[in-house]
Amino acid sequence: MCDKKQTDCTHADPPWDAPQVIPAQIRRVDNLIFRKINQFTRANGVEQATPMHGWILGYLYNHRDQPVYQRDIEREFSITRSTVTSILQLMERKGYIQRLSVTQDARLKQLVLTREGADFHEKTVLSFHQMDEYVTGLLTEEENAQLLRLLNKLREKLQ
Fold first, then answer.
1. Do 112 and 97 meet the contact criterion of CB atoms below 8 Å apart?
2. Is the dihedral of CA 33, 131, 119, 68 positive or negative?
3. Using an 8 Å Cβ cutoff, are 55 and 72 in contact?
């Protein structure tokens, strides 16, 4: 124990080994993966964007043959109206989307992916594919299958 007058404090280690703390290890690997993804995206000429921008662009890209409105984004990603409004305003300023008035309801704005937004999405997907190939190349085919199986099992049990 230490007291106020002591300058050299020593604490005994606990009588057990430190846990492996799986969530902390997963977080560390996740951070390293995102750093590597950023390297691939920069190499592909993709400016830095938040994951939410990427997810929304992906949603719009995959639903480009049907009308999409702000409320669809709110529901899909479980985020508030004010948050979606801010995100969409920034995406519009960057030229990734347009918000078009709808004739039957002036309050509604249809979200339309621009060519720049589609290009951004396609380059981002290319970067993710490159990252996937890179990561899967670090392990054997059997290790990759086992890792995916275990991660899916954890995800299912934690939901």
1. yes
2. negative
3. no
Which pLDDT band holds residue 51 (cuts at 50, 70, 90)? confident
Element (H, E) at 101: strand 97-102
Q: How far apart are CA 149 and CA 152, in angstroms?
A: 5
Between CA 35 and CA 46 the distance in angstroms is 14
Rounded to two decimals, the pTM is 0.67
Whole-angstrom Cα distance, residue 66 to residue 11?
A: 64
Helix spans in 22-140 (H): 22-43, 51-62, 70-77, 81-93, 115-136
Beta bridge partners of 105: 102
Instruction: Give, rounded to a whole angstrom, the gap between the first and last alpha carbons of the chain.
Output: 43
Cα–Cα distance measured from residue 99 to residue 88, given in angstroms and rounded to the nearest whole number? 9
Question: Tokens 């290890």 label which residue?
Answer: 25
